[in-house]
């Protein structure tokens, strides 16, 4: 696991950090729409559609992604700042005008946090769709580490998630079930410390992916997610750990 220096969302003193390749803010071409002087809303983008091409992101009809497009399997390392307002978000094939998915016009409020996920609807491809999740940190514990788990692999129909021990902490998690059941977007407390993470096929001992010695810090919030596909060339099954920061 590559180590990165992040500041937890509860230890940041209003420092705005530019997102990685998948960011809405870097190299923006939208003019005033991404100006964050004063109030800001915060957005994280996850391109989790392995059968889709690289994409460009459009906000209210204007391109807002970095040159070269955002390849599948890419996700923002931090929330990126955006001027609060109403945005229609479109995902188009990079360097083309082919619309792949759209999140209809909706509000992005001041000091609110959102995750936008692009995904495939079927195990072998299917339609590309996008969803918007409201990230609520109001109940995150400062005395514990906090996590949530997403199954974002289209060819893993049902999985169990383990935190070190032999008993799964979550069972029967299906692709994008956190959109169908918003309660799954909530962060849950766990004692801070190192963990060996595993994802197994539901009800079996068949390991799909694992990640050992992952440090979950007290007072921080993490999105842990399964991504990729079984036979992916550069996008095989893997567990990703994203620390909430901005």
Low-pLDDT sequence parts:
1-8, 10-36
Task: Describe the sheet with the most strands.
Answer: 4 strands, mixed
Shape: globular
Structural class: mainly beta
Total strand segments? 16
The quaternary structure here is single chain
Relative strand content: 35-45%
Order of strands, widest sheet: 4-1-7-8
What is the chain-wise order of helices and strands?
EEEEEEEEEEEHEEEEE
Determine the fraction of residues in helical runs and give it as a percent range: under 10%
Radius of gyration: 17 Å
Q: Please report the number of helical segments.
A: 1
Q: What's the mean pLDDT score?
A: 86
How many structurally independent domains?
1
Q: Calculate the terminal CA-CA distance, rounded to whole Å.
A: 21 Å
């Amino acid at each position: 696991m590559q180590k990165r220096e992040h500041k937890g969302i509860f230890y940041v003193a209003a420092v705005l950090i530019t997102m990685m390749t998948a960011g809405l803010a870097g190299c923006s071409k939208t003019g005033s729409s991404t100006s964050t002087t004063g109030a800001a809303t915060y957005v994280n983008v996850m391109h989790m559609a392995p059968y889709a091409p690289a994409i460009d992101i459009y906000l209210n009809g204007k391109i807002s992604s970095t040159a070269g497009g955002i390849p599948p399997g890419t996700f923002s390392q931090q929330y990126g700042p955006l001027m609060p307002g109403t945005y229609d978000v479109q995902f188009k094939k990079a360097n083309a005008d082919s619309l792949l998915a759209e999140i209809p016009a909706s509000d992005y409020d001041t000091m609110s946090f959102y995750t936008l996920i692009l995904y495939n609807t079927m195990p072998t491809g299917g339609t590309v769709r996008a969803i918007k999740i409201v990230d609520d940190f109001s109940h995150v514990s400062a005395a514990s580490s906090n996590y949530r788990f997403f199954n974002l692999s289209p060819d893993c129909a049902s999985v169990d998630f383990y935190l070190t021990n032999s008993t799964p902490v979550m069972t029967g998690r299906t692709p994008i079930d956190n959109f169908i059941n918003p309660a799954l977007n909530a962060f849950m407390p766990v004692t801070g410390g190192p963990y060996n993470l595993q994802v197994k096929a539901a009800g079996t001992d068949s390991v799909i992916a694992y990640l050992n010695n992952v440090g979950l810090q007290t007072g921080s919030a993490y999105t842990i997610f399964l991504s990729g596909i079984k036979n992916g060339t550069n996008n095989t099954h893997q567990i990703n750990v994203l620390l909430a920061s901005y």
